[in-house]
Every structure is written in structure tokens, then in C-alpha cells.
Specification:
Pfam families: SBP_bac_1. This is ABC transporter substrate-binding protein. Belongs to the bacterial solute-binding protein 1 family. With 452 residues, this protein is α/β, with parallel strands linked by helices. It folds into two domains: 185 residues, 3-Layer(aba) Sandwich (D-Maltodextrin-Binding Protein, domain 2); 196 residues, Periplasmic binding protein-like II (D-Maltodextrin-Binding Protein, domain 2), CATH 3.40.190. Strands 1, 2, 3, 6, 13 and 14 form a six-stranded mixed sheet that branches. The chain has a four-stranded mixed sheet with strand order 8-9-7-10, with helices on both faces. It has a two-stranded antiparallel sheet with strand order 4-5. Strand 1, helix 3 and strand 2 form a beta-alpha-beta unit. The chain is globular and about 70 Å long. It starts with a helix and ends with a helix.
């Protein structure tokens, strides 16, 4: 906690200055026209008045307790974050509520409580795919008024993280920490990673079998949410999209067809595992850590695992890079979490103060240093203390990946959209239907779902 004393001193000082300024505006002091009080005496008197006003303001601040909910935090960073906030805002007490570690279970519990108008939770963390759904359902407060009043610079955040919380012309969530897909590769086999998907295919075929490897490339191709993320990366890389900004379905396009065909080509490659359609993140990192593959797509969490000699046979021989590019460039699927305010909160102003602190520079630095969570504010990656936390945070390629990250479809019916994509993409990758048919099926089914 000591490392945050200097950071918070500035915050507290600014708060005190603001309080004193406010008191000066509200209080009027009668000063006689004729006085022989010298400047020093007057300054002392003003200082005494300021102290009295400050004390009065502090006494006037109402004690508030808010409840913050998030999934289980094994790192302990949440406790440090709350302690730092309460030190800066002593009149606000934050009660921390553990939610289920399973994201789906947390989602369902939030829906149950918020749909009943429950005000117990004030602030909560949300998966990047939830904001539009919760906004449409009326579960959360729009944050635009708070953002404007406090002059929050949303351009300081990575674009994709802001976009994930934006729906129907308003901002409903603040970015807290982020995640994005990376290409991992064996540095003892290849000198430079591939820059395009075609190059990856060629190199995967060429190098599979070297240094004890069996496979060329690993990805998440099982029928689950991970398949949707991988598909978004391909679709975006080839210039396609699933929905436009006006919620029109645009998935049936030549670009999407080309993306699915490239996915199918990789799945069918001789260097890919015969059971690639069963691969999820754990299967990917297990095989890669055992030295079975030259290349693998996974989230940043795998980087530290590759360097752990207790579980990695490839420690010291792994690099990471941007995912390969298609016709429209490179794209990484966006993951991570955001923070929102319950519409039924009885203390929205205090809730916002906590959200602002937690998702601002001070809060995100704490989360990075104490929990290893990747900041959504670009400038924090230039902070030496943040860079020391993890190799990724000091790597320009990783920062570029975060800057290029693309969100999944932003829609209040995302669960239905995801299900449609999982089913049709799985059928295409299994060879049951063509890429053209998959894109056409997704188009018609999504249009039907959105019209209901």
C-alpha cells in the first residue's frame, strides 16, 4: 500500500484544493474598508478561515456506503484498489461483493437482481459483451453526464474498449482492463513471425515437425465463444463485419466469405491437429507449452505460462506478435472487462466517483501492478513501474495489438448472435456447408433475431 502514498497524495491534495475553492465561493467574509492589518496577519487570518471552512465542508459531507460487485479476484488487487479509493474519498465506504467466477453465472445473477429493480449493487464489472444488452434492458445508468461534467478524455483509452461500452449513441460503461488475441511463435524455429495469414499457412506447413513439434498452428475452433472471437479476427482482417453501427446485419459479404474460407483452409491444413475442432484455450496452451506447435493464437495470459519452467517445455524460446493480416490488415479480438452503474443505485454520485477512480490512471495502475491486468489507457504503458510488472506491458507490439483490437458485435441480443455464429461457423469448418452458405445463414437468422 505504501507505493500508492505518493500517487494518492496528489489526488487528495487536489480534492482539498477543490473543497477550499468551493468554500471560498459559498462563504462571504466582511473586511473593513479601513484596516491597518499587514499582509502577513491577513494571510494568517485567511488561512485560519480556510481551515475552518475546510473542516466545515468535511463535516457536511455525508457518509455513504456503496457495494461493488465483480468475479472472484485471486490476486487481491481489488482490496488494494478499494483501500486506495477510501483513502482518497474517506466519506465513501466500498463494500466488496464476490460474484461467481463463472462469467455466465455472474451474468444471470445480475439479470435476476436488476430486472427486479434491486438496488443492493451500486457498481459492477461487466464483460465487454454485456453493455448493449444491459443498456437496452434498462439495468444501467448512461455515463455521458458524468463524463462531460468531469472532463474525462475518452480518447485516452484504446478505441475498441470505448466502443464496447457505447450503444445507441451513449456511453454505458467505462473500460477497466483489456485483453486481445496474440500470435505466439517458437523463436528457436522461426526468426520472424508471419505477417499475413497466407504466410502463416506456408510457414506452418514448412516448419511443423521441427524441434520436436507436431503441428504448425493452433487456434480455438471448438463450438463455443472462443470460436466467435477467432472468427471476428478473420472477418475484420478481411474487411468484413457482422453488424454495422446502426444494428444492420452485414455479415453476408464477400469479405466474410473470404474470412471463413481462410479459417477452413487452416483447419484442413496437414499441419493442423486432426481434432482442431475440439480446441479451446486450455487445449491450445497445453499443447503449445508441451512443445507440440510452431504457432498458436491465444490471449495474453499464456505469455507468462510460456516462461514458467515448471510447466513449459519451451521456456526461453517463445515470442509473440500481432495476429497475421488479411486483405484489410491485422485484427485482434477484444476481450476484457468494463465497469457500470446499476440504474437503481441509491448513491449514483458516489458510485461514479468510484468508477472514475477505478477506471482512471490511478486505479488502472493499481490493477496492473497488483493484479497484472492490462490497462485500457495507452499512456500507462509508458510508466516504468507498469512496464516492470510484465514483459507484455513493456512491449510495443502488444500495445499495437491492443490499439487494433476489435470488439465483438455490439448488440442487446449478443447471446443469440453468438449462438448463431457458433453453429454456422462450426458447420462450415466441419465441411457440412460452404463458407457462402454459412454467411447467408447467419445473415437471415440474425435479421430474424433482431426483428423479434
Amino acid at each position: 500500500m505504501k507505493i500508492w502514498k505518493k500517487v494518492l497524495t496528489g489526488t487528495v491534495a487536489m480534492s482539498m484544493v477543490a473543497m477550499m475553492a468551493a468554500c471560498g465561493d459559498d462563504e462571504e467574509t466582511d473586511v473593513p474598508e479601513d484596516t491597518d492589518t499587514d499582509d502577513t496577519e491577513q494571510e494568517d487570518a485567511d488561512e485560519a478561515d480556510g481551515d475552518d471552512n475546510e473542516a466545515a465542508a468535511a463535516e457536511d459531507q455525508e457518509e455513504v456506503t456503496i457495494t461493488y460487485a465483480r468475479g472472484n479476484d485471486a490476486t487481491g488487487s481489488t482490496d488494494v484498489l478499494i483501500e486506495a479509493f477510501e483513502e482518497a474519498f474517506p466519506h465513501i465506504t466500498v463494500e466488496y461483493r464476490d460474484m461467481p467466477s463463472d462469467t455466465g453465472a455472474s451474468h444471470d445473477q445480475y439479470v435476476t437482481e436488476f430486472s427486479a429493480g434491486d438496488s443492493t449493487i451500486d457498481v459492477f464489472d461487466a464483460d465487454v459483451i454485456w453493455p448493449a444488452e444491459f443498456a437496452q434492458a434498462g439495468y444501467v445508468l448512461p455515463l455521458d453526464r458524468f463524463i462531460e461534467e468531469d472532463g474525462i478524455d475518452m480518447d485516452a483509452y484504446f478505441p475498441g474498449t470505448v466502443e464496447s461500452g457505447h450503444f445507441d449513441g451513449r456511453q454505458w460503461a467505462m473500460p477497466k482492463f483489456t485483453d486481445a488475441g496474440l500470435l505466439y511463435y517458437r523463436t528457436d524455429i522461426v526468426d520472424e513471425p508471419p505477417t499475413t495469414w497466407d504466410e502463416l499457412l506456408e510457414m506452418a506447413e514448412e516448419y511443423a515437425g521441427e524441434e520436436g513439434t507436431e503441428f504448425g498452428y493452433l487456434m480455438q475452433a471448438n463450438q463455443y465463444e472462443g470460436l466467435v472471437v477467432n472468427a471476428i479476427e478473420f472477418i475484420s482482417a478481411y474487411g468484413g463485419q457482422v453488424l454495422d453501427d446502426d444494428q444492420n446485419v452485414t455479415v453476408h459479404s464477400p469479405e466474410t466469405v473470404a474470412a471463413i474460407e481462410k479459417m477452413k483452409e487452416i483447419v484442413d491444413a496437414d499441419s493442423s491437429p486432426s481434432n482442431i475442432l475440439n480446441f479451446d484455450e486450455p487445449a491450445t496452451h497445453t499443447a503449445f507449452l508441451e512443445g507440440q506447435a510452431v504457432f498458436a493464437r491465444n490471449w495474453p495470459y499464456m505469455q507468462s505460462m510460456t516462461e514458467d519452467e515448471d510447466q513449459s517445455r519451451v521456456a526461453g524460446n517463445v515470442g509473440f506478435a500481432l495476429l497475421p493480416a488479411g486483405d484489410a490488415g491485422s485484427a485482434a479480438g477484444l476481450g476484457g472487462w468494463m465497469t457500470m452503474i446499476n440504474r437503481y443505485s441509491e448513491n449514483p454520485e458516489a458510485a461514479w466517483e468510484f468508477v472514475k477512480f477505478m477506471t482512471g490512471p490511478e486505479g488502472q495502475k493499481i490493477s496492473a501492478m497488483e493484479g497484472g491486468l492490462a490497462p485500457t489507457i495507452a499512456e500507462l504503458y509508458e510508466d516504468p513501474e507498469v512496464q516492470d510488472v510484465a514483459q507484455l506491458f513493456a512491449d510495443e507490439e502488444f500495445v499495437r495489438t491492443l490499439d487494433n483490437a476489435v470488439p465483438r458485435p455490439i448488440t442487446p441480443i449478443y447471446p443469440q448472435i453468438s449462438d448463431i455464429m457458433q453453429i454456422e461457423l462450426s458447420r462450415a469448418l466441419a465441411g457440412e456447408i460452404s463458407a457462402e452458405e454459412a454467411a447467408s445463414n447467419m445473415q437471415s437468422q440474425m435479421e430474424s433475431a433482431l426483428s423479434e
